[in-house]
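Troubleshooting log. The previous structure file for this entry was overwritten by mistake, so regenerating from the original sequence record. Sequence copied from the archived sheet and checked twice against the printout by T.R.
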Amino acid sequence: MSNGPLPIIIQGGMGAGVSGWRLARAVSRAGQLGVVSGTALDVILARRLQLGDPGGHVRRALGHFPVKAAARRVLDRHFIPGGKAESEPFRLHQIFSERPNRQCEELLVMGSFVEVFLAKENHSNPVGINYLEKIQLPTLPSLLGAMLAGVSWVLMGAGIPRTIPGVLDHLAAGEPVELRLNVAGAACEEEHFTRFDPRGFLEQGAPDLARPRFVAIVSSATLAGALAKKSNGRVDGFVVEGFTAGGHNAPPRGIQQLADDGQPVYGKRDMPDLAAIRALGLPFWLAGSYARPGRLREALDAGAAGVQIGTAFAYCDESDLSADLKERVLAASGAGRSNAFTDPVASPTGFPFKVVPLEGTLSDDAAYAARTRVCDLGYLRHAHKRSNGMLGWRCPAEPIADYVQKGGTEAETLGRKCICNALLANVGLAQVPLAGQKEKPLVTSGDDVADVARFLKRGANSYSARDVIDQVVHGAEPSHAPDPTRQETPHG
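Regenerated output below.
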């Protein structure tokens, strides 16, 4: 288990690549917990290499990967000196299955390794990684990659990650691991697994690895209690996320009702019982609009160890959200015109998904209607049992005829958006389909996006991660004075 003091601020693991290594590194060097997003790191690694790896960061990290031959194979397959032409598509991504081949495993392991390695480079403070339980197939190899790079914390939400603590225990000991898959249409007694053997992957045998702390992201005391008591290993704490947080939200309890503007209606039943969570005796952090003035003190007074903050960090200099999207959102926020819409159908997962309405993105009805449906990444596909008893995979955002042919209904496809491609477009890694028009972004943020411009100094059009920390921790205007809580090596 990782030792050391608990952070007051956990930086959220936002989208795919928004909370990349630069942001996590900046937050960790400032004495808080920087967290990289673990979503789609395999395709992010491949596309960065196809862009020529500006700055050489990916190649530098791969130079430290313990299996040199595997790192060389990844470079040989994906690195393009000088980068691909802007109009040229990225190479097609190999969609993985419950039995990923060696090429898929190498990208998954090295994607997490590279991101954590770079976030930890030249300082000694802890770094975390955030995964989604609903994206199951990449999880096992990805966890090994993060642990090989020395990740200190693993955070996971969007599901019930009851078996992940045990997976971490086995990976730390170099032992094979398995993860039961959620399969629609399977009988209760049926079990389907994806498996991974670190010993075979590492060729020389698996080393003993430090077991990172595991923090589950939950929205209720009931789920927190179940995970604390019924997980197959140690749970080290919780992030308790409210419905104003960005990304995926837990659906409202009870029968869903929609407001006049089409958003789900949340009420008192959706407020977490903090007394019950506190009684579990594990540290917890509160998330959802906790970057606002006075809310850190409110969380601490409620017994929390601190807060998780996402939206405020998403628009800072160090995040990998594209500069154009940051500028547009900050300008709208400063003018009082920015907001988050909780879309009940956008996400293929079925969870409500926070969207920032921006012209020209998939939140724009015209841009959405103009896009040709395609499912060429497959992270949010659902496993289902086919008539022959084998596993099949489908996504409500794929071409409608394909989804229906796989046993889905057309009603389930209405309004669904390809979040996989859109989130990569958010960070400058948009695919260029054969038709020649780049995939459109889709920006997600919490309700704090309405006034995120408050972090700007007078006359400035951008702000840093340190500015966010200063305002949240010290309740002051942004300052670059030394922070006595900062811990880093002399060369950091």
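The radius of gyration is 21 Å. Archived copy saved in two places this time.
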